[in-house]
Amino acid sequence: MSTRGSDRCRSCAGFSLAEVLLAIFLLGMIAVGISALLGQLVGSNDTDLARLQSRTQAVAVMESLLTQDYSQLGLGTVSDSSPSGMSWTITVSQEAPGLRKLVVVSTAQGESCRLESMTADRLGGLP
After folding, report:
1. Domains of the chain
2. What does the alpha-carbon distance between residue 81 and residue 105 come to, in Å, rounded to a whole number?
3. Residue 42 pLDDT exceeds 50
4. What angle is formed at CA 9 by the lines to CA 6 and CA 17, rounded to 5 degrees?
5. pLDDT of residue 96
6. What's the mean per-residue pLDDT of the chain?
7. What is the spatial distance between Cα 53 and Cα 84, in angstroms, rounded to a whole number?
């Protein structure tokens, strides 16, 4: 009877060493895959943040210039930057007589955004 009891315990003993090692290996591979995926997601969030900062800066610069009369803006290019590392370039050009073009290019962490606007002088004496 004692022989049967030991046979029963041996069959109920659990997993073999090979099964445990295989399970650990598979879980490790899954963990490595998930960590690589999370790393890519975090990296894309940094890129998205830089792109958003660049667009926000370009819009802010453009809006501040749109409140001015284009004819009072000097022709040429002006560049500036902020302490946070963002930079922007403003270009005002005369496309044709009475037609001015304003271009703002903003860059943050390698991501650029370009905005353009054109205006014509008053036509036919309209206010």
Report:
1. 12-120 (3.30.1300)
2. 11
3. yes
4. 115
5. 83
6. 78
7. 11
**Which tokens sit at 78?**
């002006």
Give the length of the chain: 127
Residue 54 neighbours by CB under 8 Å, 6+ apart? 86, 106, 107, 108, 109, 111, 112, 113
Model pTM score: 0.56
CB atoms within 10 A of CB 55: 17
Contact (CB, 8 A) for 87 and 80: yes
pLDDT 10s digits, 60-73: 888 887 777 766 77
Cα–Cα distance for residue pair 14/19, rounded to 1 Å:
10
Q: What is the CB neighbour count within 10 angstroms for residue 25?
A: 10
**Residue pair 66/115 in contact by the 8 Å Cβ criterion:** no
Q: Which residues contact 23 (CB under 8 A, 6 or more apart)?
A: 15
